[in-house]
Every structure is written in structure tokens, then in C-alpha cells.
Amino acid sequence: MTATLHPPVLSGRDFLSSLDLTPQDYRAVMDTAHAMKRGEFRGQKPLDGLTLAMLFEKASLRTRTTFDVAMYQLGGHALTLTNQEIGLGTRERVSDVAQNLERWVDGIMARVYLQSTLIELAQHASVPVINGLSDSLHPVQLLADYQTLEERFGDPRGLKITYIGDGNNMANSHIQMAVLTGADVTICTPVGYEPNGKVLIDALAAGARVTLTSDLEAAVSGAQVLYTDVWISMGQEGEAERKRRAFDGYCVTPQMLDRIDADGIFLHCLPAHYGEEVVPEATEHRKSRVFDQAENRLHAQKALLYHLMADRQPRW
Fold this sequence. Notes:
alpha/beta; 2 domains; four-stranded parallel beta sheet; Orn/put_carbamltrans
């Protein structure tokens, strides 16, 4: 028997940051994602007649594919727009792009260089705007990550998560998720490569359990979840050699995974730069859930789209 979808809880809102959700919102999205993965709503089309515009300043495999497939499975349509076609902030003002798109589509997902671009889109568009990645945050990835964690551990409250590597958008997003979920997050990065200071200070002020350290051995030992990301993000290629020197020793290997909790798991948001932050044997390790994590981009984003857009009426 097909289950009935619960009413959407995020109707018309933007999702630019994990902290755009309350703990109750998070629980509703996660419960929907788990149920969708189990196939409980198979065949239902709650976004029938709705369209999502997908804006890409940065290349994408997982974000593009999973949002596109998610809209199709929910009965909607996804439209891909590259920066060569739009020219956000160059060929056209961001505010103009937003005010055009809001008249044609029911939601906007943007994968961009700057968080400020997303904020401007959201300020000028009356439809939901979703952060598909920016220089500051990657919240849709964290939804998939935490779905993967819940599949293994259940409630993430108190879960010992160690992120090692660059203090980039992924590190910032892990810190925000500590606020939202109560997970115990350690960010391990070399001196000089720490995450955004305001993100960290705000999280600590909110009571989150976040530790910042450069002690790799202590951070890895006994962790229930070990997480890494590329050291050199798109647009940072000029810093490659300097970062490789700074992060020497931070590469995740099978030997490192042997030092985490016996029942622990390894995650990487992909793509992997093998030989830098990780070796292939780590993503293929028995503790790796990297490809389950990638699969969950589809289920988590499908749940997010449902909760943001399902109350909208088709335009035709």
C-alpha cells in the first residue's frame, strides 16, 4: 500500500544554509528522505506541473543529476542553465535574472561561486532559492550526509564526527549541522586553513559542540565518522602546490580508517582528488559509505524539493 506524504513544512522558503531549518524542519525532511528511499511514495507526483531552474556557475555531476532526476521522479521538470547562457552578474544583473525566472519557474537551484549571489537571488525572487553550493556553504550535501549517518547510527545527537582537511564550505556546513543536530564535530585542519570564524563563533554561541584542532592523531582516534573533502576547490587551482605542502600527512588512507571506531564509517562528498586528500583504497574500504552518501543526494534533495515546493499551484 502506498503511504501518504505528510504536509510540506518549508513552503515557499529559501534554503541557503542548514540553519534555514529548525530541528523540527530537519526531522521532517529526513523522515521524508528515508521514506522516499524505502519507496513508500513510489508513483506519487506531488510536483506535477512545477519547474525548477538549475543555474550552474560551477561544473557538476551529483548536484545536476540528482536535482534533475528528483524533479522528474516527483512529476516536475528541471531546466539546466549554464553560466555561458546567463552570465550571472556580467551579462545580466543577478536581480534581473531572479525577477525573470520567478515569472516562469517555481523554484531556483543555484551552484555558484559566491554566497552573496544566492542571497541576491533570494532577495529578488518570490520563488524558493536553493543553495546547490557556494564558496561558503554546501547545505544540500549535508542533508545527504546526515541521511547516510542516520542509516548507520540513528539519531546523530552526540555522534563523534571528525572532518579533516581544508576549512572550506564543507567544514563550515559541518559546523552549522552541529548546531542543528547536536552532533559532536571536530574540524582538524592545519594552522592557517581554519573554517570561517563567524560561522564557528556563532555555532559555539548557540551551544554547539565543535572542536577546532590541528592535532590529526587525536582528531582521528576513536571518531565514529571520518570525513574529508578536496583541498583545492574549483577556482583555487593557483593555490595547489602551497596547499599540498600544508596538508602533507592529511591524506585519508586505510591505515587511518583503522584508527577510527571499530563501527565507524568514512565519508567524502566527491569528487575525490586521489593522491591528495584520499587514496582509492579508502573509498573502497569496508568502512566507506562514500557511494551510499552520493546516492542519498537524490533522496535528501527529493525530500527538500517536496517540502519547499509541493504547496505551489501549477502555472497552467
